[in-house]
Amino acid sequence: MPDLNLNAMSLAELRDLQKAIVKAIANFEVRQKTDARNKLVILAHELGYNFDELAALGGPKIKRAPSTKIYRHPENSTITWSGRGRKPAWYIAHVEAGGDPEALLG
Questions:
Q1: Is 104 helix (H, G, I), strand (E, B) or coil?
Q2: Residue 75 to residues 13, 36, 72: CA-CA distances in angstroms?
Q3: Which InterPro entries match (predicted)?
Q4: Which of 31, 56, 64, 80 has the highest local Cβ count within 10 Å?
Q5: Chain centroid offset of residue 81 CA
C-alpha cells in the first residue's frame, strides 16, 4: 500500500479519497455478509436443511413487560406515552413550563 501524504492533498482530493474509502468499506461489508451467508447455506445443506426455511423461522421473540407508567396528554387524554423511547413534544413542553411529570400519570 503506498504511503499517502494527507497533509499534501487538496480538500477535493481528500473528499474524493473519503468517498472511495466509504465505498470500499461498504463493498467489503457486502462481501463479508455474502461469504457468511454462503457458509451458512452450505452448513444447512450438510445438516439436511434448506437455509431459507431455517432463516424464515427467526429467533425467539423477546417479550417485554408492559410499562406500568402511562403519561397522558394534559388536554387530550387519548394521547399517551409509555415512558419509553423519545419523549413527545407535549411532555417536554409541560415539563419545561414547570409542570410536574407525575401530574401526567394516568
A1: helix
A2: 56, 53, 8
A3: H-NS_C_dom, H-NS_C_dom_sf
A4: 80
A5: 21
Cell of 39: 457458509
pLDDT digits (tens, 9 = 90+) for 63-95: 877 767 889 998 998 999 988 889 999 999 999
> What is the DSSP code string of 29-85?
HHHHHHHHHHHHHHHHHHTT--HHHHHHH--PPPPPPPPS--EE-SS-TT-EE-S-S
pTM of the model: 0.49
Q: Is 90 exposed, middle or buried (0-12, 13-18, 19+ CB in 10 A)?
A: middle
What is the tens place of the pLDDT at every residue in 17-31? 999 999 999 999 999
Q: Residue 52 to residues 57, 73, 92, 102: CA-CA distances in angstroms?
A: 9, 45, 46, 49
CA distances from 41 to 27, 31, 56 (A): 21, 15, 13
